[in-house]
Every structure is written in C-alpha cells, then in structure tokens.
Amino acid sequence: MSGSAITPWVVGNWKMNPMQSDSQQLIQSLKQYLQAAPISAQQCRIAVAPTAIALLPVQQQLKDAAVDVLTVAQDLSRVAGTGAYTGEVSAELLKDSGIEHVLIGHSERRELFGDNVQIITEKVKNALKADLSIIYCVGESLEQRESGQAEQVVLQQICDLANVVSNAQWTKVIVAYEPIWAIGTGKTASPADAQAMHANIRSGLKQLTPHGETMAILYGGSVKAENAEALAACPDINGALVGGAALNAESFYQIAQAFAQVKK
Ligand code: 13P
Question: Quick one: what percent of the chain has pLDDT higher than 70?
C-alpha cells in the first residue's frame, strides 16, 4: 500500500480554547457543513480535541452529526486508574467516558508543562494499556532544524515511543509531525520539507513494525484551508493536526475536504 492509500485523518486541536458557548457554535456549524456535504469516514476521519472540560458536551453534541466525528482528549495523566491524584484524568477515566483517542507529546506539553520522555512514555503506556488509541506528536525546534538535527531529533522521539509500544499495540498509534517553529506562527513547512520528514518517519516506523507501512502520519503547524491541498498531495502526509484553523468550522471543514478529495 502506498502512503497515499491510507485513509487520511484531520484532527482539530482546540488547545485551551474556546468558551463553552463558542464550542457549541463551532460544533453546530461543523455539523451543518457535514450535513450539507458529508465527508465519509472512508474518505477522511474527522476528529476534534476540545479541552478536558468540553470533551463530554462536545461528544454528546456530535452524536447526531451526519458523519462520525471523533472526540479526542488533548492529554491524560501519567498515573493510571483511579486514586488520590488531584487534578488528574487517567486513561481509564477517558475510556470509561467513551473517549477512544488521546494526543500525547504535543510540543506545548513538552515545552510548557514539563512533559519529558519519562512522563510521555508513562502516558503512552497508560493509554495503550487502557486500549486508547494515541496520536503521538513529534517535532524539532527551529534551532535544531537550523543546526541540521531535525531528522535525528524526530527519529529519537519515534525511538522513545518504540521503547514502550508492543508489537500488537502499533495499530493503535498515529504519529503527528509538528515542527515547533511552524506552530501558531503562520509559517508552514514547505510541502517538500514536510514530505521529506514524513518519509523519514515512515522509513523509521517500517523498521520497527510492519504497521509502519500503513500508519497515518499527520502534519501539523499552520495548516489552513489555503495550504491543505498542497500538503495533502504529498504521499506520506496522511492528514493534518490543525490548531488555529480548527477554531473556524468553515476552514476546518475545508481542510478535511481537501484531504478527502486529494487522497481519494
Ligand atoms: P497551528 O495550526 O495553530 O499552527 O497549531 C498546530 C498545532 O499545534 C496542532 O496541534
């Protein structure tokens, strides 16, 4: 199967946005776009990752959407199960709430909240043990890119993941490449640069697991309706992890539509 035969995923990472009433409007509007011109799950998997406090209302509101839209958690606890861990939400609690997917290792968590390799791998282990699927984020800083270390940094992050994923668990993994310098800056990696990194990631994954051949590798970093088509045209870019543009239903829908059309 070639990279472009993989069903694309377009995931909206809402980060610490928006207020509940705006979230309701955003979902309402997204549902209207999907009602008017549905994008099937075979064409493109669509998912949104709201804040922890909006996960269940969003999931509820999406129940009658014209197509299946997944609700994804942005994070989970490094601690499993239940117990005296104030402020934490475990993999088991997410699963118990009907949440099946979680982002792990986003650069904002790594840079601002101290999620180091140990914490990230604990989160990966907990998520997979609770039978959640993970969207594992990797990406280099501008400094690392400029000093020629981008590939090495990203492949190391893939190796960190491989250390805690068993053979059978790879089917529960999606990778998102998000160069840190492209996040929220309006600067997208050029399709050629992004494709080159995605091809490296795929070849690394293929050495680790047969599933590497068909694993979705998403690109994130200033994805917009305007650049989605060019990114979607790259064989190893199997979708997008969208930040800012996911807060607008029309642009988010258009990004999903671009991937659905280009990849068909
Ligand atoms: P932007 O699309 O706002 O650059 O954010 C990307 C991102 O971090 C998605 O997880």
Answer: 98
